[in-house]
Amino acid sequence: MAKINLDKISQILQGSSIESSKIDISYDDIDQLGGKDDVLAMIRNIARYNAMLKERITFINSTITAAIPFTKENLYLICGYSGNGKSTIAANVSYPLWKEGKKSLVITNEESKEDVYFRIACLHLGYNFNEYKKGLMPNVRQRECAMLFPSIAAHVKVADVNFEYKNLENATATVEGVKALMSSVKNSDYSCVMLDYYQLIKRSVDRPDIGSYEVLNDFRIWLGQFIKRAEIPVVVFAQLHSLGKRNNKDLDNRIKHCADIYETSTVVIEVIPNFEEKTSDFLIHKDRFGLAGTRIACAFEKGRYINISQDTIDKLINEKISDLKNLLDGEASEEEKDEQ
C-alpha cells in the first residue's frame, strides 16, 4: 500500500503528475487512529512540548522572553517600516545568546558580517553603532569593538551579502541559498537562525523566470514545513508598506510583496519606535501562546531594547529634561548673539 508523506502531498497540491488513485488509505488505516500506538505518540509529543518550553532561551530581553517563549517549532515574524530598526533588533536577538554562550546563525542579505559584529560589540560596550557608520567613532573605540570580534564570531555565525554557496554569488538573496543555509543547522547545536530580511530574497536559481511573489511564496511554504522539522526557532524580519501606500491598519495587508508569510508564522510582532521618547513598542499581532493584541514597551538605550523599570523611566525623564535644558540654553545663546 502506498504511504502518504509531505512530498507526495506537496506534489499533488502543485499539480504534479501523481494521480490521486495511487494513494490508497484503507479502512484499517483510519480505524487505527486513536489506538494505543497513536495515543502513546500523542503523549510523547506532549512530553516533548513540555521539554521544549523548559528549554526557553532569551528573546531580546527578560520581559519579552517572559511573554513570548523563544522555542523550536516556531517562526517569529518581526515587522517594521524601513529605518525602524530591523537590523538593530537582529543584533539584540544575537547579543544575549552570545553572552549566554549559545550559537546563532544570522543570514543577512542587507549587511556585511563586520557590521553585524560591530552592532553586537557596540551593544556590549554601550557605543553608538551609527557613529561608526557616519565616521564619527574614535579609532580607540573602533579597536575596542574589533577586539570583541573573535569572541562574538565564535557564537554568532554570519552569512552576509557577500556569501557564496557552491560558486553562487550573493547566495543570501536566492531562495535556494537561504534554504541550504537554514537546513545546515536545523538539527545542530545552534539556538536559533535569523533572516534579515525576507523581501530581499530576490530570485530563484532553479526557476529564474519567476517573479518576487513566487520566490517569496515558495520560501514561506518551505518555512512552514521547516519549522516542524527543525530543532531551533526561526526569526524572520520583514518590511512593511507605509499606511500611506496601503491604507489598511491590518498588518497582513501591509507586509510587502508576499503577505502570506503572516499565515505561516506562529508569532507576528510589529515594532513601533517612538524616537522622541526613546522607547519602542513590540505589538503582538499573532501569537500561538495567547498574547495577541498585547503591547510590550521597551526603553531604547544605546542600541539595546531594555526592560522598562522605574529607574529606566526616571532616567528617560532626566534625559528629556537635559535635552530640553540644552535646547533652551542654545536658544538663549542665539538671542544674546542677536542683541549684540
Largest sheet: 9 strands, mixed
Average pLDDT taken over every residue: 84
- The span between the termini is 97 Å
Structural class: alpha/beta
- How would you name the oligomeric state of the polypeptide chains in this document? single chain
Number of helices: 13
Number of domains: 2
Helix content, binned percent: 40-55%
Task: Tell me what portion of residues adopts beta-strand conformation.
Answer: 15-25%
**Anisotropy-based shape:** globular
CATH topology of the largest domain: Rossmann fold
The CATH homologous superfamily of the largest domain: P-loop containing nucleotide triphosphate hydrolases
Number of strands: 9
Helix and strand element order:
HHHHEHEHHHHEHEHEHEEEEH
Which radius of gyration do the C-alpha atoms yield?
24 Å
Offer a concise description of the structure.
With 340 residues, this protein is an alpha/beta fold. 43% of the residues lie in helices and 17% in strands.
Describe it for me?
The chain has helices spanning 6-13, 27-31, 36-54, 62-67, 86-99, 113-125, 129-133, 139-147, 149-155, 175-183, 212-229, 261-264, 310-339; strands at residues 75-80, 103-108, 156-159, 190-196, 234-239, 267-274, 279-287, 295-301, 304-307. It is an alpha/beta fold. The longest helix has 30 residues, at 310-339. It has two domains: 71-308, P-loop containing nucleotide triphosphate hydrolases (Rossmann fold), CATH 3.40.50; 312-340.
